[in-house]
Amino acid sequence: MKLLLVLNRSPSDGTDVTWNALRLLAKAQEAGMAVRVFLMNEAVDLAREGLERGDEYDLQGMLLEVLAKGAEAKLCKTCLTRCGIGDGKPRPEVAEATMPELVEWIADSDRVLTF
Q: What's the pLDDT at 85?
């Protein structure tokens, strides 16, 4: 099964939304699913080089761990300009992408979840 998570929230918004999404991503991967994550809006900040670890959780570390195990991640190129990463560049593990590429991932996925 192919699972696509679309993340929209800032990793530092004071909620557990991103943390829970990344936990789900890791568990789906452990269960044998092919997992992908697309970062949009303020979630593009999750891929910023130099993102500081939060007080409780290393959200970027969680993302990099699933990527090291074969997950794929892309971030919205337009959102990169509009919403985030103005103070840094994206990590090389996360490719810049466009809406047509997100549409391709949606069409190729068995399940799509948004956070």
A: 59
DSSP 43: G
Tokens 């971030």 map to which residue?
Answer: 75
Which of the two residues, 66 and 81, has the higher pLDDT score?
A: 66
Place of tokens 């992408």: 97
Which H or E element spans position 94?
none
CA dihedral 45, 115, 113, 90 (to 10 degrees): 0
The CATH number of the domain covering residues in 2-114: 3.40.1260.10
Mean pLDDT, residues 29-40 taken together: 98
* pLDDT at residue 86 is higher than 90: no
What would you report as the CA-atom Rg of the chain, rounded to the nearest whole angstrom? 13
pLDDT in tens, 72-83: 999 999 888 876
Distant-in-sequence, close-in-space partners of 32: CB < 8 Å, separation ≥ 6 = 1
What residues have CB less than 8 Å from 54, skipping those under 6 apart?
Answer: 11, 12
Domain boundaries, the chain: 2-114
